[in-house]
Amino acid sequence: MNQPLLSIQGLSVDYVTNQDVFRAVDKVDLDIADNEIVGLAGESGCGKSTLAYSVLNLHRPPAFITQGQIRYRDTSVLDLPTASLDRFRWNEVGMVFQSAMNSLNPVVRIDRQFLDVLHAHTDLTREAALARAEDMMRLVDIPVSRLRDYPHQCSGGMRQRIVMAICLALEPRLIIMDEPTTALDVVVQREILQQIHELKQRLGFSVLFITHDLALMLQFCDRIGIMRQGRILEMGSRDDILHRPQNAYTCQLLDAIPGRHLFGRTWQWNQTEEAAL
Ligand SMILES: Nc1ncnc2c1ncn2[C@@H]1O[C@H](COP(=O)(O)OP(=O)(O)OP(=O)(O)O)[C@@H](O)[C@H]1O
Ligand code: NI
């Protein structure tokens, strides 16, 4: 890999409560290259969101980063002064978090919400910002006329796309998505992910995509990390994870995917399954 866009090295995050210290992220290494979609899969509570928040230095007590480094190009994220952090979080790295569709303000028209974000984080004039908002709506395949609507007039899938459009309007190099589509039905989920994929080809950005849905990840990500109890057990290309898993836990997760033979081949460790097909 050339110099990665983001490089996490030996990162540990502890939740410190009363006498208790709980290590939620345990010496994690993770690189993300330019234009790469990296997935993190693992059961609930394994530390995915904690990791995502700390990448942006957004973790708050009782969470503490106790060791490790996060580099974004040549910048050490954990050493960024507060003033630069805001720019980093919006202009360099965008975030779409769990049930982001509810993060739109319900009583503010969508165009206003675009304008507020663009005004706060760019030097665009009002006209240029509106033009950018229209471009972004087209990009995510929503009629520009919807800009005059309130969020409640849009479906959940549409709202989710709009949140993504607002995030993309700042042209971040990396987008962190933590269960961005979990609240949506499966068809809409896949549509949106397909769209992110296409947008990535056109605009060029990297994605850190977090979900417990390994099946979804196998369709969508270039590389996948399997996480358990704060550690990344195994990291590999989509093909490696699907066909050459190295870890028994990865096998368990793959085994739990319904209709997994639809992926084309069964994976090698499962001899009985192969025999059955
Ligand atoms: N404020 C907190 N205080 C103490 N422990 C916490 C706190 N927040 C999270 N944890 C613990 O840290 C661990 C990691 O939580 P995290 O939310 O990162 O997991 P996750 O992989 O994102 O799970 P999910 O898939 O359910 O979103 C969990 O075991 C959780 O109980
Ligand atoms: Ni989470």
TrEMBL record:
Location in or out of the cell: Cell inner membrane
UniProt keyword annotations, A-Z: ATP-binding, Cell membrane, Ion transport, Membrane, Nucleotide-binding, Translocase, Transport
Reactions this protein catalyses: Ni(2+)(out) + ATP + H2O = Ni(2+)(in) + ADP + phosphate + H(+)
Pfam families cross-referenced by the UniProt entry: ABC_tran (PF00005)
Domain (ABC transporter) ranges: 8-254
Keyword Glycoprotein in record: no
EC main group: translocase
Membrane topology recorded in Swiss-Prot or TrEMBL: Peripheral membrane protein
UniProt EC number: 7.2.2.11
Subunit relationships: The complex is composed of two ATP-binding proteins (NikD and NikE), two transmembrane proteins (NikB and NikC) and a solute-binding protein (NikA).
Identification of the protein by name: Nickel import system ATP-binding protein NikD
Source organism of the structure: Natronospirillum operosum
